[in-house]
Specification:
Blueprint: H1 4-13, H2 17-29, E1 33-36, E2 43-49, E3 55-61, E4 71-78, H3 80-88, E5 92-95
Antiparallel strand pairs: 1-2, 1-5, 2-3, 3-4
């Protein structure tokens, strides 16, 4: 779920997302990789890898209670070097094969 305040956040703080919003939706629906957050087990980091090796990153608060929805916290474009760094951290939970 993308709430109004969260959408305003990522559009104002990560201005590249204005042009990449459709890719964000694709990231939420069909991520290429999902990572665990090192601190909070309810946070998931979804990546959709782009042709140039960069990625759309969506940070999502997952819900475990019945009747609740997962909520987008933030989104931005990651550089290829940041994608490589994330992969080296070994917090991968799932990868589309």
């Amino acid at each position: 779920m993308i709430t109004g305040p969260r959408r305003i956040h990522y559009l104002e703080k990560h201005v590249e997302m204005v042009q990449l919003e459709r890719e964000l939706i694709e990231t939420l629906l069909r991520p290429d990789e999902i990572y665990r957050n090192a601190v909070d087990p309810l946070i998931a980091v979804l990546l959709r890898i782009r042709d140039d090796g960069s990625a759309i990153r969506a940070t999502v608060l997952t819900s475990i209670g019945q009747g609740y929805s997962n909520s987008l916290m933030s989104a931005w474009q990651m550089r290829r070097s940041d994608v490589d760094l994330m992969r080296r951290r070994r917090t991968l939970a799932w990868r589309w094969e």
